[in-house]
Amino acid sequence: MSIQSIRAALLEEVILHLLGKLGYSTIESPSGDPQLRSGGAGLELQGRGGWHQMDALASLDASPPFVYPLRLIVEAKCYRDRSTIGVEVVRNIVGVLKDISENCVSHSLDNFEGQLIQPARFNYVAALFSTSGFTKPAIRYAVAHQVFLIQYKRVHLFKPVIDAIRSLNKQHFKAKMLAGAKSTLRARSCARSIFSGDDDPQSEVLSIRGQELISTIAELLSKIGGSYFGMLQGRWPIHLLSRKPIPECHFETSDTLECRVYGLHGNRWSFVPLIGSDGDPDWFRLEFDLPLEIASMIRDLGDDRVAIAGAKKSHFSYIALTGIIGGVRRQVKLTLNEEWIENYIQRYS
């Protein structure tokens, strides 16, 4: 198994850990589900045309009305900065998602009383996570087939984690174990144990240095206190990260919070509360990476602060945000304060 594959697996485990802060639960075994089975390389999910390996699968128990419980297929790629994900990767995900979604189990199962019951149904969605962005054809294809694309190329809070994963090399593995068919699965299992707080994980693949690297990644993850999913302008999915969770006091009387948005040339973008400043106990900064379409537009504006402010007003007017706030799963809205942006435009015009 290649180092590149194992890096991708570790990134998927990191993402599953952060999704846990969102309220998702990682599915690790079939647990009696007839559509799942344990395969030679891990968990497999039955589609209409065959079984598909599911390296990273998560579930969300809370679902809106008239929607079956949600299951999220997670795939991640940890490429170098200039190696964007192409359309072929998205095509593969779309094919798997289509085959799984069309596998409507029509047979019934006997319960303990001999009565026939229908197996549980799920609504499957897929998300592709990247450390280096996507090509334009990949974005167009993903949008057309409702595959969510999330990138971390310019999320400074997440960069140390990415750098640590990219530093993985052959020296982090025990001799002759890297070529094993299950090396990725075992490395993934070791990472999952360490991320969950196991102080003494048993790894047949990773060397002491390898386990130390995973522990370093776990320590870096502990510095990310908040993990939220957002839809920017109701169109672009983004993963927002913060050093500390959003304080629940911001939403005691309303599910809407006015914010400022900061960022220049797509290098470091974040939402912060309109009231307060860094150092205040209730202040927070949500970092995210821009979707390619908006990032390209911002770069074309150069140093024109007024034009950039106008772009913020047009494309950052709100984020519909979902996550755990104050121990409760919430759906809230972060809005760009119009008076703040107007004052910004007047100051530089």
Describe it for me?
- This protein starts with a helix and ends with a helix.
- Helix 2 (87-101) packs parallel to helix 3 (136-144).
- It has 349 residues and is an alpha+beta fold.
- The model has no long low-confidence stretch (mean pLDDT 86).
- It has helices at residues 3-22, 87-101, 136-144, 159-166, 183-195, 208-222, 292-300, 305-315, 338-348; strands spanning 25-26, 36-39, 42-46, 51-53, 57-60, 70-77, 109-110, 116-117, 123-130, 148-151, 226-232, 236-242, 256-262, 269-273, 286-288, 318-325, 328-336.
- The strands form four sheets. It has a seven-stranded mixed β-sheet. Strands 1-5-6-9-10 form a five-stranded mixed β-sheet.
- Strand 9 (123-130), helix 3 and strand 10 form a beta-alpha-beta unit.
Q: Summarize this, please?
A:
The protein has 2 domains: 3-222, Trna Endonuclease, Chain: A, domain 1 (3-Layer(aba) Sandwich), CATH 3.40.1350.10; 226-348, no CATH class. 32% of the residues lie in helices and 25% in strands. The chain has helices at residues 3-22, 87-101, 136-144, 159-166, 183-195, 208-222, 292-300, 305-315, 338-348, and strands at 25-26, 36-39, 42-46, 51-53, 57-60, 70-77, 109-110, 116-117, 123-130, 148-151, 226-232, 236-242, 256-262, 269-273, 286-288, 318-325, 328-336.
Short descriptors:
Trna Endonuclease, Chain: A, domain 1, 349 residues, 17 strands, 25% strand, seven-stranded mixed beta sheet, five-stranded mixed beta sheet, globular
